[in-house]
Specification:
The protein has eight helices and eleven strands. The chain has 242 residues and is of the alpha/beta class. The protein has one domain: Spore Coat Polysaccharide Biosynthesis Protein SpsA, Chain A. Strands 5-4-1-6-10-7-11 form a seven-stranded mixed sheet, with helices on both faces. A two-stranded antiparallel sheet has the order 2-3. The chain has a two-stranded antiparallel ribbon with strand order 8-9. β4 (59-64), α3 and β5 (85-90) form a beta-alpha-beta unit. α4 crosses α6 (180-193).
């Protein structure tokens, strides 16, 4: 059987960089949150399975704690049959360091880079594809949710400084999709100019004056950070299995 499209031509287009190198201090316990299990599977494995199932993604680079590289390869990638994962590399101290290392590891072989948190296991393959499709029309794309509560800005003493019109406020999620050259330049500038604590990669493009398109995500695309998040994740998984 002949293979169609870019796969038949050997053309590589979309790579997903999955940062999963955090220590998970807010979760407590002695195990990094990305390796905790939900329904008998590590959170990171659940996340990666959605990229394995998404036809829009050609390859995946996973960034994990330096001491967990071999464990991730054997106990998660190989056991789960995640054939799209081409590299498992050690991360840095901060999320932005890990993302930068993941981007650099692709060596510019893919013109489009998608970044997704390793602890967002309920991203749907269809939403990944939607974000990638939107990136064909826009320079950069992120998934986000419209704010459903009134947002207040407060000062260090807890006093309200400003109230925002929630109609214009969106809560950023991942995946976020960029042109390789743009996101590589953004992370390099972050190092050169000391842009610290960049928890959202789209911020780098904003700081460079580039436009970013927002598309609506899903409420179930949660980031698992605390024990309460883990409880919610168990509920979401059980609901999907039913």
């Amino acid at each position: 059987m002949k293979r169609k499209g870019r796969e038949a031509k050997g053309e590589k287009k979309i790579v997903a960089v999955i940062p999963a190198a955090g220590a998970g201090a807010r979760m407590g316990g002695g195990k990094a949150k990305q390796f905790l299990e939900i329904g008998g599977k590590p959170i990171l494995a659940l996340t990666l399975e959605n990229f394995q199932a998404c036809p829009a993604v050609d390859a995946v680079v996973v960034v994990v704690p330096p001491k967990q590289v071999d464990f991730c390869r054997t106990e998660i990638i190989e056991k789960s049959g995640l054939t799209k994962v081409t590299q498992v590399i050690p991360g840095g101290k901060r999320r932005q360091d890990s993302v930068r290392l993941g981007i650099e590891a692709t060596k510019g072989e893919y013109p489009i880079v998608l970044i997704h948190d390793g602890v967002r296991p309920f991203i749907e393959p269809s939403l990944i594809s939607k974000a990638v499709s939107a990136a064909a029309r826009h320079r950069a794309v992120i998934v986000a949710m419209p704010a459903r509560e009134t947002v207040k800005e407060v000062d260090e003493s807890g006093m309200i400084v400003k109230t925002y019109d929630r109609r214009g406020v969106w809560l950023a999620q991942t995946p976020q999709v960029f042109r390789y050259e743009d996101i590589r330049k953004g992370h390099r500038k972050a190092v050169e100019e000391g842009w610290d604590e960049v928890t959202d990669d789209a911020l780098l493009l904003e700081k460079m004056g580039l436009s970013v398109k927002v598309i609506e995500g899903t409420e179930e695309n949660i980031k698992i950070t605390t024990p309460k998040d883990l409880e919610l994740a168990g509920y979401i998984l059980n609901k999907r299995l039913r």
